[in-house]
Design goal:
alpha/beta, about 400 residues, Aspartate Aminotransferase, domain 1, binds 4'-deoxy-4'-aminopyridoxal-5'-phosphate, globular
Amino acid sequence: MSTAVSTSVEQIRKEFPVLHQEVNGKPLIYFDNAATAQKPKAVLDALSHYYEYDNANIHRGIHTLAERATSAYEDTRKSVGKFVNANETEEIIFTKGTTEGINLVAQAYGRKFLKDGDEIIISQLEHHSNIVPWQILADQTGAVVKIIPINEKGELLLEEYRKLLSEKTKILAVNYISNSLGTINPVKEIISLAHDAGAVTLIDAAQAAPHHPLDVQDIDCDFLAFSAHKMYGPTGVGALYGKRRLLESMDPYQGGGEMIKEVTFEKTTYNDIPYKFEAGTPNIADVVALKAAIEFIQSIGYTFIHDHEELLLNHANKVLLDIPGMTPYGQASEKASVFSFNIDGVHPFDIGMWLDAKGIAVRTGHHCTQPLMDWLRIEGTVRASMAIYNTIEELDIFAEALKDIVKKFKK
Ligand code: PMP
């Protein structure tokens, strides 16, 4: 799989053992990809190969296994660097995931450089991971969090954003793609406007990594965070990209082994980047398997991914929009393969449970975007988020299942 170019979804599906099972007596249809994507064999093999042959702690050992584990870990760093088109490999820091990447920037950059009255701009579309770390930072420093509003389609209002920007703006942090609505934000333009105001920029690329090529030099962000598990890789690992100049100016995020040059009781000197931000034994096996996930995506290519997911989204609109009582949320002109909705008179949790009984996995609730749900004046939605292995036939079964549920509740 790592080298072959997949041209059919049937072939791709064969790479995902988990898809080939029945759930509640029906073939599994997995539409919860925005929460976490399933893992191809290449990723599972990388994990078990690491533990079967190479397991050792990294950087410190001189024995063969330690050298193998270290080079596999550092190979992933190179691979991530290329994946996001970083200028230098040292600009890649391994984290637990997007959440940790954003917290790292808020604490290691924000706490050092922000002061009372400074402003942090986020948007109405953000996941709690890109809200709460900034609120904590605001409490710690006296900075203020400002919100870019959206329109009815779930698109950011750029004119309003321009008005929020001023010399007080110190950080701009927005998502690339909204997990609840699928909106693809014009991040290059947003970043350029923030830079004109002198702010530092962070992109939450959690939902972008599986769907959209990442190019940190092209969009010119200062920081970018993503999680492996949403891009067919393992849970518990992700990466933060940061520009060297900024990373070097920051304080460490956590203290411990590996992040130091020298420790005495009087004074400790810190390691160079990226190690300064990787205290303690990292999640070595999952970092190693992240490389397999990147290679999996590259073997398919974002063009194929884009075309297939666009086909799925168009088909979802075709078969779902005229279901009685259907209210879709998020109709942005640039949109990823997410279909969020409610059906009049049926609670989203009930829909989720009835779908599960038919082997269909969707997410229901606020999707960790409560301020967005408040803006929409709803408690939550049902969200079907599609990935490279989903099919038109699955969407047809989904549409029929929803029609049955509507009939059942209308009785
Ligand atoms: N941002 C967005 C847009 C997300 O969808 C998610 C995950 N749902 C996160 C941040 C947080 O990612 P993680 O839980 O992997 O840290």
